[in-house]
Amino acid sequence: MHTSLLAGKKGIIFGALDEKSIAWKVAERAVEEGAHIVLTNAPVALRMGGINELAEKCKAQVIGADATELADLEHLLTESQNILGGKIDFILHSIGMSLNVRKKKEYTDLNYEWMQKTFDISAISFHKLMQTAMKLDAMAEWGSIVALSYIAAQRTFPDYSEMAESKALLESFARSFGYHWAKKAKVRVNTISQSPTMTTAGSGVKGFTDFYGYADKMSPLGNADALACADYCLTLFSDYTRMVTMQNLFHDGGFSSMGMAPELID
After folding, report:
1. Which CATH architecture has domain 10-264?
2. Is the pTM higher than 0.85?
3. Reduced to 3 DSSP states, what percent helix, strand and coil does the chain have, rounded to the nearest 5?
4. How many Cβ atoms are within 10 Å of 120's Cβ, its own excluded?
5. Is residue 203 pLDDT above 80, yes or no?
């Protein structure tokens, strides 16, 4: 069902790698609801994924940008305003990568240079994005900035490794920068703590398939899929959530409130 929820709004979507990714679904749904968007990802991800297919479907331009590089972010935000014809109404930050997880390093034997790179890509890039947007005055009043997080920021999930700290830092940036954005231009900043989701990135975590099944049983509503998360993102981009900011919002079928599920005992 299309309701023109985002009619006339202009947005930037980070991180659409392939059809499984949440960012891909967000881009599709945002355009269906009337938004005009620019797609962006790191140059290496642009070569790996099918973002040009998504761009054609969404009638969107693609701008390559390394979110850890301030010059790239400045170019992205400036060119996006030129392409879209004005300030940005919403941004989705859907970026996360851990070299230690990829290399299957144990949490008690991490490579610290890789850890710093993980933090830069997965969390500090969020601060860099918001700081650059503020310096360029790129966000429209009452705009919305959303980043995707995970409950490992609050709970211990051993195989999630240093990404847990990355998500905790990401959520902290949303609260801290959210204050400054609200004061400057009434821009909202929130994170969504999403269910484990069958994406290309998520499935790379050790033991993901087993944990996906566990979370699905623990959650009274089951795991929220990528499309459901996209719809939730759209509500935060919309004018219906103008007074929601500096929040970490759980979108996980009730998992975050559960202590025990009989289904896991039977």
Report:
1. 3-Layer(aba) Sandwich (3.40)
2. yes
3. 50, 15, 35
4. 16
5. no
